[in-house]
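Tutorial, part two.
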Amino acid sequence: MIRNLFITSAYWGRLAALITILAILFPLMTKAEDNPTFKNWEEVVDAARGGTVNWFMWGGADNINEYVSGFIGSELKDRYNITLKRVGINDTAEAVNIVIGEKQAGIDDTGAVDMIWINGGNFRTMKQGDLLFCGYHDLLPNNKLVNWQDPSIANDFGLPVEECEVPWNRAQFAFAYDSARTENPPKSIPELIDWVKENPGEFTYPAATDFNGSVFIRHVFYHAAGGPDALLGDFDQEKFDEIAPKAWAILNEMEPYLWREGETYPNAIASLAQLFANREVALYFDYDPAIFGINVENGIFPETTRSYGLQDGTIGNTNYVAIPFNSPNKAAAMVTANYLLSFDAQYEKAKSSVWGAAPAIDVSKLDDEAGARFAALPRHPAVIAPEALARKSLPELHPDWISAIEKGWQENVGK
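Running the prediction step on this input gives:
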């Protein structure tokens, strides 16, 4: 009896030791599956079914929110039993900071963020910090609809995408005016500079702290540089020091002729929209031209609103969705990203009554029937055709250039 008790105690001791070892190894085994390897798309879909995707995205536009929560959310639920939870934020950096904090805390497999609407500096921060799940493009069936030979898609603000994000939209800066009020709006940056002086009080732009205000300032910077080619690539302090004073001189020379004599600048693009709606200024602009038609339909802008690009080009970019390294629902996020690239999702998004956003896919890669449906989409008369804008698209700059320009404007113009 004593011998049996001894054996039993030893057995339980060894079992306890084994349980302890497994407790140590199990989290490691779980983490090894966090960057899963799938043999084919069917395995991805099987792993995704019944999952949840917490999509963190800018939530400032009701029509976009409805498209995502209503259309995309319903389709994912019906097709894959995936629950899409849209998490509205004011700034993409909020989601990025969550992931950064989780990595610092050692949260490598149970992150709160499954997908982010992202581009530019935020993408650079995440890629350089190894905060992204990458290398899955070949698994996505709809990846074949993306023109990865286009540098403006393959590179996000100058940084190679390298299978770390999936394109969702394309956007390009455009100007708007009331055709019943302004017959001949300025069609280039040099014309605009002269027009502002000839029409005092009729123009202003948001401060550099606003995204659209910053983009407008970059157009003037491009003009001062003789075009964007001199600015592409990594930030060059010597080039900046040569070009910046010319840009600040142009903007400071314009300042007395701006709305309220340039004593103050709108703090957000929404404020500029209100000034245009109230006829306090004659020109408006936005990185998303679809907003012109939306504001007309909502009774904010006059029905005679029309939009245009510049003869010397306007800045455009692609925006994407990305999956953080520690998303616990990577398969479901991949299925979501793939569906966003589908004809159905891109076509619905392109409807002027829904969003009017330019497609991220190459429409020429669709079959004839699908391509014809895109071509037949009615376009709001206030919105310039995306293909017309695209003919004179200017590239975005490296985020370090953008930061330097924004800081320089605040120090040399804004104050």
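The two ends are 91 Å apart (CA to CA). In part three we will examine how such features are distributed along the chain.
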